[in-house]
């Protein structure tokens, strides 16, 4: 049986679980299922909401910028919400069985959170991830009892995950398919409802823009659907890093767009158009250079004293540009983006000049753009375009 053994080696077929299904009418299974759902729901009840941090901008600009700090979840990232929803969805569909592993294709943060929930309900967990995933994320997965199965080709994580599930009799969670449907986007304390409730007392309670980067696309879909359902005028922008196909697929309308190189910004950007990326729900996309993402996340630390991961920088760069556009058009309002996970997971990457040099990334011109923007509200080049 595959157990909670801390190892980075692949699961061996010799240790695979039998593939025979459980009897879902069996009282013992029904009792286990009820207890598993209770534990996951109870965990939500023990969790406080995450903070909405104000980024310091001159008050006279008339535009306010906020970051929804998802790093304060118990597993340290935005993916905690997703993992909880995916586990409830899979449990209620009868896909997760006692004693059998949950397998996920993940670049790190989702796997950390799913390992936590797997341990909570007492089932094994295997994360299938690129070998380039940060060592700190690997440590956290193993800390929560999970196992790490590394692949050299990032594009193979899907088929490897499915194969491991088949040979073990486990369940491939498949966040890239189910992220957009597992979350209750109409409300029920999802991230979108939370943001609007937290903004009620602000001078611009209905944001002009919400900026949400995309890994699975589940968060941007939740925001966009909630906005349409509640009949708000807020627009949703999805920034995309280098080495990701989402921007090209969205602008060209090509559902088969691909990227041959893996994203350097962990947690976002994908080599294919994922099923959970709902292109029709969002209003705008931006392509963000990786060096700009790093410059932005370093500027964030200087402004509010918090380190964050590279995906936060991708969103913050785009939020800065949107604020500059609003100022250029004489508009007032608010913009919300996400602080997705803590920067201590990436000290050897986005905060290491040696890593930047290895990657050939020069953040200097982007840092200067941010400095100019924060000082004057101006953005170099044309900012008057609309989606």
How is the largest sheet built, in terms of strand order? 1-2-10-7-8-9
In total, the number of strands is 10
What are the secondary-structure elements, in order, as H or E? HEEHEHEHEHEHHEHEHEHHEHH
Strand count, sense and closure of the main sheet? 6 strands, mixed
**Which segments are poorly predicted (pLDDT under 50) over 5 or more consecutive residues?**
1-20
**Text of the CATH class of the domain at 51-75 and 189-376:** Alpha Beta
Helix percentage: 40-55%
Shape: globular
CATH topological fold name of the domain at 51-75 and 189-376: Rossmann fold
Quickly give the CATH architecture of the domain at 51-75 and 189-376: 3-Layer(aba) Sandwich
Structural class: alpha/beta
Distance between the termini: 53 Å
Residues in β-strands, percent: 5-15%
pLDDT averaged over residues: 91
User: What integer value in Å does the Rg equal?
Assistant: 21 Å
Assembly level: single chain
Number of helices: 13
Structural summary, described in words:
The chain is globular, with a radius of gyration of 21 Å. The chain is built from 13 helices and 10 strands. Residues 1-20 have low confidence and may be disordered. A hairpin with a 7-residue loop joins strand 1 (51-55) and strand 2. The protein has helices at 27-45, 79-92, 109-121, 135-143, 157-168, 175-182, 191-198, 218-230, 246-252, 290-304, 310-328, 353-359, 364-376, and strands at 51-55, 63-69, 102-105, 125-130, 147-151, 171-172, 209-211, 235-241, 284-288, 333-339. The strands form 2 sheets. A 6-stranded mixed beta sheet has the order 1-2-10-7-8-9, with helices on both faces. Helices cover 41% and strands 13% of the residues. It is an enzyme of class 4 (lyase). Its cofactor is pyridoxal 5'-phosphate.
